[in-house]
Design a protein that fits this description.
Two copies of one chain form a homodimer.
Chain A: H1 15-28, H2 41-48, H3 52-65, E1 68-71, E2 74-77, H4 82-95, H5 100-121, H6 124-139, H7 144-162, H8 165-178, H9 182-189, H10 192-207, H11 211-231
Antiparallel strand pairs in A: 1-2
The first copy, chain A, binds a DNA duplex (21 and 21 nucleotides) through helix 3.
Chain lengths: 244, 244
DNA sequence: ACCAATTTGTCCGTATGTATG
DNA sequence: TCATACATACGGACAAATTGG
């Protein structure tokens, strides 16, 4: 009752949170640059005025965020790579009960952009990797698991060739969920050949630098995927998690 | 010397990592369902065979990941919301020195899809929110900061109307970096009116359910943004962080 | 509204393994 | 090879906040 409300809420967040915040700030602000070693736990604990146990709790959060990475014993400031974020994003989507329809619509836009950009920027090495991918799929056309993983690899190679990190970041969590859906479709419909033909056509158009056509073919390729999904009797509006 | 090498590498990852992994598994696998309270720290520590301090380090990682949230004192299993991931993804992109070109290309594809989907699914309430947004921008057309934040809001409203969580997840980190770039352009070029007009046109086409035209107008709108960026003398291939 | 038990937040001390000079 | 520094992990302790009776 009589307590002064002024002092009531001095401690807003637990100490370990403030530690994570402070260290993250230190890095984002550039006081600690990527590549540098983090100070020892004792030093940091002393500097921030907390116990080492508390400091370590905070460090675990920062570490998990990817701002620091373990390099041997010490922690080193790192550039968080967005691939680390992709799996977490995918998990968020499945827990949110995202539907195949949502994934398909988004994949449609991103893979089309990917293909168009790849036409402009692809180089010889990437092309030969794609050729190798196609050859391998042709050789293993009966092996469904192999075809699915080669399909994923094909689109990943294309994304790399597109040379756009914003796009890579955006498409990764979606493709992580979308393409494995092939595992559901293929065993029932055996449309491996259609996939292979589409890939062949796409790489052919890329070699011709035909960005118009490559876009429409990529859309056709993904429309196939949608038809396959529906043909298995699965509901596009149903969450994926059950299916996968 | 005589030690059996069989036992040499039993411990691959530190215990706190395994804790984070185990607890994350527990949740992803559905043994702990969203909304449930996490067991107490002592229980978990006993169950996983680690000390409570170690367990807490692991918990901090899981907590930071968004799989559990604080509810009063205890931790409660939660569905990680992808908006939490967006800021981290944005940070990753800026630290990776992503260029305006990369952002623009990606935004182009995603905002176009957003607009097209919005046409199909928008409802009366969302339309009136967009109308209000436009009216407010018209009333504050001189206030640059206001215009920028209303521009962001306009596109966010559209994204919500598109009703696609995969798209929301993908576009958020990009839009978080892309649209604030207006803060650079507008003070120098004063093209607020063009933004307002584009928004008016887009909402008009949405009301007409004209998905063809709305796509081209959205592209035009973003092409304007690109021209503005170039007109300020900024290099599209330069990282954003300096500019923002 | 009060009391007691539970649980978290924080700290301290210590032992162990390992990498580095 | 040896010694040191450091991270990892454990055990125990206590205050504060929360919960349940």
């Amino acid at each position: 009752m009589l307590e002064a409300p002024v002092f009531s809420k001095l401690t807003l967040a637990p100490a370990y949170r403030q530690v994570a915040e402070s260290v993250g700030q230190l890095i984002s602000s550039g006081k600690l640059r990527p590549g540098e070693l983090l100070p020892t736990e004792m030093e940091l604990a002393l500097h921030l005025g907390v116990n080492r146990s508390t400091l370590r709790e905070g460090l675990r959060a920062v570490e998990h965020e990817g701002l620091v990475r373990r390099d041997g014993k010490r922690l080193r400031v790192a550039i968080p790579h967005y691939t680390d974020l992709a799996t977490r994003a995918s998990r968020a989507l499945t827990m949110q009960q995202v539907t195949f329809r949502e994934l398909w619509e988004t994949a449609m836009a991103m893979e089309t952009l990917t293909a168009v950009l790849a036409v402009e920027r692809i180089n010889g090495e990437a092309i030969s990797q794609l050729d190798a991918n196609i050859a391998e799929m042709a050789a293993n056309i009966k092996d469904i698991d192999r075809v699915v993983s080669l399909d994923i690899e094909f689109h990943d190679l294309l994304a790399e060739a597109a040379n756009n990190r914003a796009l890579s970041l955006a498409r990764e969590p979606i493709s992580l969920l979308f393409f494995p859906a092939g595992k559901i479709i293929l065993p029932r419909l055996k449309t491996q050949k259609r996939i292979l033909d589409a890939h062949k056509k796409i790489i052919e158009l890329i070699k011709q630098r035909n960005s118009q056509e490559v876009g429409t073919w990529m859309r056709r390729h993904l429309a196939d995927m949608k038809r396959g999904y529906q043909a298995t009797g699965l509901d596009m509006e149903q969450p994926l998690d059950g299916a996968l």
